[in-house]
């Protein structure tokens, strides 16, 4: 992986995990959010605000995806991420675990990169992250 691509992905993941952790510790939940890196390399966090008081998460994900894809297709952004809360279960976790899912698209990577950061609350002021993993959707 090229150094610039690796750096972009690390920025998107670092921001997403830290922001989600802060929101979880502050209120116990969060709405989906995103971040982007412009073609010139500028990093920008992105939120979507809806008129509804409690919008559905999928609606926010769809709106963020649509806005990011439009900018991506016009070469205004070289990478973007969308982060949201999911429940995961796999061979390592036979019982469902809460996780931060971070979906990343980068102009120099075919398809999407999906990263999972499972977590559990140790107490109201601390999260413990379990072993994360990534998948490549082509």
UniProtKB/TrEMBL annotation:
Source taxon at top rank: Bacteria
Stated name of the protein: Uncharacterized protein
Which organism was this protein described from? Adhaeribacter aerolatus
């Amino acid at each position: 992986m090229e150094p610039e691509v690796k750096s972009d992905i690390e920025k998107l993941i670092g921001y997403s995990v830290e922001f989600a952790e802060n929101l979880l510790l502050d209120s116990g939940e969060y709405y989906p959010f995103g971040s982007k890196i412009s073609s010139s390399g500028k990093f920008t966090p992105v939120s979507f605000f809806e008129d509804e008081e409690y919008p559905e998460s999928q609606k926010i994900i769809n709106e963020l995806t649509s806005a990011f894809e439009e900018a991506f297709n016009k070469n205004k952004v070289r990478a973007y991420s969308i982060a949201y809360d999911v429940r995961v279960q796999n061979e390592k976790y036979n019982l469902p675990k809460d996780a931060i899912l971070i979906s990343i698209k980068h102009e120099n990577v075919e398809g999407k990169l999906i990263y999972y950061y499972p977590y559990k609350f140790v107490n109201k002021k601390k999260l413990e992250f379990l072993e994360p993993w990534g998948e490549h959707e082509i």
